[in-house]
């Protein structure tokens, strides 16, 4: 034994990395935290961006397709105006199909014409009726542009408890009529009220009042030169569509809305589509335009002052 070499074998145990003393979970957790930080940073950047960029981004993903061009077309824009303390921004529609250069050019021309009309109305109201400029709000929506003529405390658009327009309201309608009467755009007129009950009379309430006031505005616009053939709808919505949604009793909810619509576009393989109003009011392809719901302007109706609109 003395002349032999002693061989020593050392066995090393491997493992234990998956136990609580291992560090591999820290790598995975660090990756997770990095991804979460990047996600919240993205959300913060999106929330801090201008509303127009958010609208464009939403519209891009709404119209994106693997089989065609995605995103918004050159005719898609986003406009903003102060509307009762907030901002209203709407894109007029999705992009045209790929290769339809003629449709894009028509859309650009139509939009430019509507934008010029919008700017002209705004300029005329500010220059000729500066004292009520905050009561006339012009916004672009998906089907065209909308002119809201609103009440405010101490300066209503209709006489006390009546369907008779005030002198100031007649002046505003005269300016609007002068700017749109030479156009061939279709027109819709809407009447809106606040949530205050008009009267205890079951036969004449907010629905009747809003419709009668819309019709009174129609009569005044026609008197100022608007072509009656351009009218496609005159209707009342009572207090169902407040412009100040968090306060349905706000006097600004009492208003007349004049919608100037983009031209109708023919449906593929069928007749022209109906009116191009907001989503809930838009007719589907192949349907006839909505009928005119017009009432003759009634004589002024007086009610108790505490119940008036």
* CATH H-level homologous superfamily name of the largest domain: OmpA-like domain
- Count of individual helical segments: 5
Give the second-level CATH assignment, the architecture of the largest domain: 2-Layer Sandwich
Shape by Cα distribution = elongated
Strand residue percentage: 5-15%
Which CATH top level class of the largest domain fits?
Alpha Beta
The SS-based structural class is alpha+beta
First-residue to last-residue Cα separation: 119 Å
Gyration radius (Cα, Å) is: 31 Å
Query: Tell me about the biggest sheet?
Result: 5 strands, mixed
CATH topology of the largest domain: 60s Ribosomal Protein L30, Chain: A
Low-confidence segments: 70-100, 270-308
Strand order of the largest sheet: 3-4-7-5-6
Number of E-type strands: 7
The pLDDT mean sits at 75
H/E topology pattern: HHEEHEEHEHEE
How many structural units, i.e. domains? 2
Plain-language structure description:
With 309 residues, the protein is an alpha+beta fold. It has five helices and seven strands; from the N terminus they run ααββαββαβαββ. It has helices at residues 24-48, 51-63, 101-128, 167-180, 206-223, and strands spanning 79-83, 86-90, 136-141, 144-150, 187-192, 231-236, 255-261. Strands 3-4-7-5-6 form a five-stranded mixed sheet. Strands 1-2 form a two-stranded antiparallel sheet. Strand 3 (136-141) and strand 4 form a beta hairpin. Helix 3 runs antiparallel to helix 4 (167-180) and helix 4 (167-180) crosses helix 5. The longest helix is centred in the middle third of the chain and has 28 residues, at 101-128. It is elongated and about 130 Å long. The protein starts with 23 loop residues before the first helix and ends in a 48-residue tail after the last strand. Residues 70-100 and 270-308 have low confidence and may be disordered.
């Amino acid at each position: 034994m003395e002349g032999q070499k002693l061989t020593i074998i050392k066995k090393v145990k491997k493992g234990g990395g998956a136990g609580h003393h291992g560090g591999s979970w820290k790598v995975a957790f660090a990756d997770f935290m990095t991804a979460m930080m990047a996600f919240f940073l993205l959300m913060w950047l999106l929330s801090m961006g201008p509303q127009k960029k958010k609208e464009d981004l939403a519209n891009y993903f709404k119209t994106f397709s693997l089989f065609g061009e995605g995103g918004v077309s050159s005719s898609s824009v986003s406009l903003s105006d102060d509307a009762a303390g907030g901002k209203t921004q709407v894109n007029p529609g999705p992009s045209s199909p790929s290769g339809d250069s003629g449709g894009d050019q028509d859309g650009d021309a139509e939009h430019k014409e509507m934008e010029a009309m919008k700017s002209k109305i705004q300029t005329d109201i500010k220059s000729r009726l500066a004292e009520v400029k905050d009561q006339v709000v012009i916004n672009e929506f998906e089907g065209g542009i909308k002119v809201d003529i609103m009440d405010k405390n101490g300066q209503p658009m209709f006489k006390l408890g009546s369907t008779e327009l005030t002198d100031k309201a007649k002046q505003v309608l005269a300016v609007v009529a002068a700017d749109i009467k030479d156009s061939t755009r279709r027109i819709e007129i809407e009447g809106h009220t606040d949530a205050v009950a008009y009267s205890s009379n079951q036969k004449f309430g907010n629905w009747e009042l809003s419709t009668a006031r819309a019709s009174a505005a129609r009569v005044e616009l026609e008197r100022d030169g608007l072509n009656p053939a351009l009218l496609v709808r005159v209707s009342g919505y009572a207090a169902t569509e407040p412009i100040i949604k968090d306060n349905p009793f706000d006097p600004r909810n009492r208003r007349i809305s004049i919608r100037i619509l983009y031209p109708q576009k023919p449906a593929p393989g069928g007749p022209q589509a109906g009116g191009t109003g907001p989503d809930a009011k838009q007719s589907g392809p192949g349907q006839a335009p909505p009928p005119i719901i017009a009432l003759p302007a009634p004589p002024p109706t007086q009610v108790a002052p505490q119940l008036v609109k």
